[in-house]
Design goal:
The strands form three sheets. A six-stranded mixed beta sheet has the order 5-4-3-2-1-14. Strands 6-7-8-9-12-13 form a six-stranded mixed beta sheet, with helices on one face. Strands 10-11 form a two-stranded antiparallel sheet. The protein is 29% helix and 24% strand. The protein is of the alpha/beta class and 303 residues long. It has helices at 26-42, 67-84, 124-127, 158-165, 181-187, 194-201, 257-264, 267-284, and strands at 13-19, 47-49, 87-96, 99-107, 113-118, 139-141, 144-148, 170-174, 204-208, 211-213, 219-221, 225-227, 233-236, 243-249. α1 runs parallel beside α2 (67-84).
Length: 303
């Protein structure tokens, strides 16, 4: 049995980003997820990021989801985290406060859910089924403070800026590309603006995307990547194949310097930034929300 022990002396974090072609079923995606975990464990990764809706795939009929099946699938992911003793970040539909959300579920090495972020800024396709979240992600991976956004949210820099002001030094970004082939081709080769977000905050950016043809004739550009605080792309997957990319993060380089400086100047905004950062930290100190699914009768109807 492969197992992954945390490195006590290492000052950094070894991260893996998984580029997936979604299977046609939850069971099929769980097989792919375990296969990627095994690869990451052999490379001694500390944490593995999977794409948006990695358990179900994106673009199908979310209205057909069965709460019990999602609960069991998330339980299976927790068992994988515990079995391989590795941190996992897995995109999945979840039920929070009686509504379906487009979520990112964070499991620690014991398989415990330590955070669940719900996508706030929804696409038109999201809004057909999901309700928006109401938080900014802030959680720890082996003691390292991190944040997350989901897919479309890379267009909303404040979600990252506030988390970095609150101390986050690594951004995890699960994605599921759903573009026309023409748009998808424009995004290939890293032309997606992600490096800018890493640079302007001086943090690491870990991006895991789907790849290739998707449902409904859509495409995903792939190009999963890991970006350094200076904006340099240190790992980049191609736009054709499934992949697991891995990099060591030197956290001493992730200072959050520019976010910290913008919190202080201009001075007339400083107190408002501080107020917002306190709110972000306060909501992050709450216990992780339960993602156990309620019965369909207890749920609010989807949009």
């Amino acid at each position: 049995m492969l197992k992954n022990k945390a490195s006590v002396s290492a000052p950094g974090l070894r991260v893996a980003a998984v580029q997936m072609k979604f299977a046609c079923s939850i069971a099929g995606n769980l097989v792919k997820i375990e296969r990627a975990i095994c690869h990451a464990v052999r490379r001694r990764a500390d944490v593995v990021l999977f794409p948006e809706c990695a358990l179900t795939g994106y673009g199908g009929d979310f209205g057909a989801l069965i709460p019990r099946e999602m609960t069991e699938a998330l339980g299976a992911v927790g068992q994988l985290a515990a079995r391989y003793q590795i941190n996992l970040l897995v995109g999945s539909p979840v039920i929070l406060k009686r509504k379906w959300r487009n979520g990112l579920v964070v499991f620690d090495r014991s398989g415990r859910i330590v955070h669940c972020y719900a996508k706030c800024q929804l696409t038109e396709a999201d809004r057909r089924f999901f309700s928006p979240g109401n938080s900014i992600a802030l959680f720890k991976i082996d003691g390292v403070l991190a944040t997350a956004i989901i897919c479309h949210e890379r267009r909303y820099p404040e979600l990252v800026r506030l988390a970095v002001m609150a101390g986050a030094r690594v951004l995890f970004h699960p994605n599921a590309g759903m573009d026309s082939l023409l748009v998808s081709r424009r995004k290939r080769g890293g032309r997606d603006g992600i490096a800018i977000r890493a640079f302007e905050n001086e943090i690491y950016y870990v991006f895991a995307n789907s790849v290739g043809p998707q449902l409904g004739g859509k495409w995903s550009a792939g190009d999963s990547k890991i970006v350094a605080p200076d904006g340099r792309v240190v790992r980049l997957a191609n736009n054709r194949d499934e992949a697991v990319i891995i990099a060591d993060l030197d956290l001493g380089r992730a200072t959050g310097k520019y976010a910290d400086e913008s919190r202080e100047h201009p001075r007339f905004l400083s107190r408002y930034w501080r107020c917002m950062v306190r709110a972000v930290r306060r909501q992050a100190s709450l216990p992780p929300p339960s993602v156990k699914c309620c019965s369909p009768k207890q749920m609010d109807k989807p949009h």
